[in-house]
Design the sequence.
């Protein structure tokens, strides 16, 4: 039922750590339920992701229903031991690193995540999809540690796929290997930078989260943007001083979640300018923009959580069920305790890679996409 669509469909995926379970739920709906209503599987021609968005994007770029099932299995059965661990010495060892008594520039080990990514990438499904031009381009964002530049790693088999580098950024065309995905998800301070060809990279969300730039300039005419931040966040008065975990959680939000909204707003502004120009000067206005500047009107649909994942994680957290070491459980309990007064914990929602939470977040993503079924049908069929 995989029919070639009449337009180029692009997919942009935000980061957010364990919040990636939400995006996986949206993708599960997109590739398993929506096809029943539109008559085809809406596989994306261009996939762009940052951090955990790059990991979810890998499965979407494979154009394989088995890979989507595997993505769902991972998020519904994941445990913290699959993603990170403390170094030897437990809490004391980590405290020693924090106090500068070690030369390491990070707190946690990503060795479990490396093993998981290498295991998933070994099936070579992505290579087959790229080679057959099913997926025209798979793009992973990372940040160059030394220069601070955003770097787009692009795997494509299409020699005509060329895009300008993002502002203050660069582009590297290469095959995507596990180290690119690990680099994109290396949150500064928490995880070590990743070496690629002798140069170090960290989380792509530091410079560019949910990178719309390569999808737009790659020629996508319709783009689905999946975010992981609650769309209706409001300011509320806070009676007590903010805790360290609150500050850390909000900082991660600002670094890795907020830019998705900015980029979507910018694209919608461009669309409105094109509409105004066509109405005032005729179709020649849009034709000239496309010919001279490569700018076209792009239809964007954005899906974000209908409820705060910071609140959801507080509802789901059960210290008795979380399978992890005593030291990590101590940290999680501390974050949970600090989040009780406000009823949410952004930081816990990003690091609790445990099925007690990820199952619920994945279901929420599925239901949020399902609630917008008519809008999605119109998006793909019009």
Sequence:
């Amino acid at each position: 039922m995989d029919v070639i669509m009449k337009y180029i469909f692009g997919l942009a995926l935000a980061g957010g750590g364990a919040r990636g379970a939400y995006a996986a739920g949206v993708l599960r709906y997109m590739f398993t339920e929506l096809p029943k209503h539109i008559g085809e599987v809406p596989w994306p021609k261009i996939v762009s992701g940052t951090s955990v968005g790059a990991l979810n994007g890998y499965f979407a770029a494979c154009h394989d229903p088995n890979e989507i099932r595997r993505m769902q299995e991972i998020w519904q059965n994941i445990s913290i031991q699959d993603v990170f661990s403390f170094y030897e010495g437990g809490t004391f060892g980590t405290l020693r690193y924090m106090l500068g008594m070690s030369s390491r520039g990070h707190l946690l080990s990503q060795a479990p995540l490396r093993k998981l990514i290498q295991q998933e990438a070994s099936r070579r499904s992505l290579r087959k999809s790229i080679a057959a031009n099913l997926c025209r381009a798979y793009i992973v964002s990372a940040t160059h540690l030394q220069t601070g530049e955003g770097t787009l790693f692009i795997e494509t088999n299409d020699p005509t796929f060329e895009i300008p580098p993002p502002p203050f950024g660069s582009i590297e065309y290469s095959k995507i290997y596990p180290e690119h995905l690990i680099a994109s998800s290396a949150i500064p301070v928490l995880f070590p930078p990743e070496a690629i060809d002798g140069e170090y990279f960290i989380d792509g969300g530091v410079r560019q989260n949910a990178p719309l730039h390569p999808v737009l300039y790659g020629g996508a005419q319709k783009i689905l943007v999946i975010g992981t931040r609650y769309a209706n966040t409001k300011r509320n008065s806070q009676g007590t001083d903010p805790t360290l975990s609150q500050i850390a959680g909000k900082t991660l939000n600002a670094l890795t979640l907020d830019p998705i909204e900015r980029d979507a707003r910018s694209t919608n502004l461009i669309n409105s300018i094109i509409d105004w120009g066509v109405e005032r000067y005729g179709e020649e206005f849009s034709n000239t923009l496309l010919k001279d500047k490569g700018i076209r009107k792009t239809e964007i649909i954005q899906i974000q959580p209908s409820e705060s994942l910071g609140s959801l994680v507080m509802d789901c957290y059960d210290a008795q069920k979380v399978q992890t070491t005593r030291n990590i459980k101590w940290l999680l309990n501390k974050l949970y305790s600090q989040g009780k007064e406000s009823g949410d914990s952004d930081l816990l929602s990003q690091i609790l890679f445990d099925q007690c939470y990820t199952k619920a977040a994945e279901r929420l993503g599925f239901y949020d996409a399902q609630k917008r079924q008519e809008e999605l049908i119109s998006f793909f069929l019009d």
